[in-house]
Specification:
Radius of gyration: 22 Å
Number of domains: 2
CATH topology of the largest domain: Aspartate Aminotransferase, domain 2
CATH architecture of the largest domain: 3-Layer(aba) Sandwich
Shape: globular
CATH superfamily of the largest domain: Type I PLP-dependent aspartate aminotransferase-like (Major domain)
Structural class: alpha/beta
Number of strands: 13
CATH class of the largest domain: Alpha Beta
Number of helices: 12
Bound molecules: ligand 0PR
Strand content: 5-15%
């Protein structure tokens, strides 16, 4: 570290240089991210609460009230206003908390969890940290978890089953109702990872899209991950974890002797209140109607893009269910498509299963960006 400090001007000027190297959402070049430009109201709220720490809520009772309200509103959005949970750093921490609660409440030794093959890699981290074995259930022809495969994997060591509402690679919604029946029959904890779909499925259903139920209205669902920093338009880091019963949070609470709360269930200790304030502001400012408009616009652009991709001679891997389009070509390899598009300034995201180029049509994507992308893709085909 240098001995003498730099002037404020020099610091900011240097930071601007670093920032220039970053891509921006506004440019329309970020096509494979689940994050987006935070909404201006969220930014204003975030900056008001920068010093607030929900790790010591007695010092920040106003922020704690905001968190309680946010959890109730999210619970209401997902079929159960009287849920218990926290605003945390993101989907990884939420999934880790859910699996931890399931493990802690069970007496089983050498416990196992069952996740679909399409589950996010955060479950691998969770299994490793919590010393659990991870079993992967097969998918059906529509890339949703196969219920028979889940049933076959269940053993007397299974402590949790996971279903995904909006898979990372294809945006598919697993049959949560079927998983709930299996879990209730076997008395197993069911966690739904709606990190991506949680802020769009309820609103698309309002708009008349035919999408299945996935939330607490289904009786076997024990917990749900829902990330405001994805389709919720909140700044990073903002995740959410909701539990049906308080006992799940209590199962992992640790005594905190000198803080203003007696026990803490979150993994992170010092925890920003700014994310909570931003989420509260968004829920109040946009309301159900605002989120419905955002989700519907993303779906309209998704359909436009999917149509254009087919017209350009490429093949969709599957019909989009949420705002993710995945495609490949019968004539070009994935490397050829990916390199060709990179040469034109795009940074395509390549999914592993199935191998495909994947575009997530987030709220920062405009029609003009997609027109340019489609024109470059069509050019690629003519080589
Ligand atoms: N669950 C699901 C279904 C997810 O898709 C993700 C992340 C997570 C959990 C974990 O969430 P956090 O990353 O908030 O912990 N999905 C994206 C992914 O890993 C996240 C992402 C975001 C990736 C922006 C790239 C990017 O530029 O692919």
């Amino acid at each position: 570290m240098q001995y003498k400090g730099m002037s404020r001007e020099k610091v900011i000027e240097s930071l601007r240089e670093y920032k220039k190297k970053d891509l921006t959402y506004q440019s329309g070049r970020i096509l494979g991210s689940m994050c987006t430009c935070p909404h201006p109201v969220a930014l204003e709220a975030y900056s008001m609460f920068l010093e607030s720490n929900l790790g010591d809520p007695g010092l920040f009772p106003g922020t704690k009230d905001l968190e309680d309200e946010v959890i109730t509103i999210l619970g209401d959005m997902l079929g159960k206003p009287d849920v218990h949970g926290h605003i945390i750093t993101g989907g990884t921490e939420a999934n880790l908390m859910a699996v931890r609660a399931a493990r802690n409440l069970s007496e089983i030794k050498d416990a196992e969890i069952i996740v679909p093959k399409s589950a996010h890699f955060s479950f691998k981290k969770a299994a490793e940290m919590l010393c659990l074995s991870l079993k992967e259930a097969e998918l059906d022809e529509n890339y949703r978890v196969d219920l028979t495969s889940v049933e076959d994997l269940i053993s007397d060591r299974t402590v949790a089953v996971v279903g995904v509402a909006g898979t990372t690679e294809l945006g598919k919604i697993d049959p949560i109702l079927g998983l709930s029946e299996i879990c209730m029959d076997n008395d197993i904890y069911l966690h739904v990872d709606a990190a991506f779909g949680g802020f769009s499925i309820p609103f698309l259903r309002d708009a008349g899209y035919y999408l299945p139920e996935f939330d607490f209205k289904i009786p076997g669902v024990s917990s749900i991950t829902i990330d405001p920093h994805k389709m919720g338009l909140a700044p990073i880091p903002t995740g959410g974890i909701l539990f049906r019963h308080r006992k799940y949070l209590e199962s992992m609470s640790i005594e905190t002797p000198y803080l203003t709360e007696d026990r803490q269930s979150t993994i992170v200790g010092t925890r920003t209140g700014a994310s909570t304030a931003a989420t509260w502001a968004l829920l109040k400012h946009l309301g159900r109607d605002g989120y419905r408009k955002i989700a519907t616009r993303c779906m309209e652009l998704t359909d436009f893009l999917a149509d254009g991709i087919e017209k350009a001679g490429f093949e969709l891997v599957t019909e989009p269910e949420l705002n993710i389009v995945a495609f490949h070509s019968p004539k070009m390899t994935m490397d050829e498509i990916s390199q060709g598009m990179m040469d034109k300034g795009w940074l395509p995201s390549v999914s592993a299963y199935p191998a495909a180029i994947r575009i997530i049509v987030m709220p920062h994507i405009k029609k003009e960006h997609l027109l340019k992308f489609l024109s470059d893709l069509t050019d690629l085909k003519s080589f």
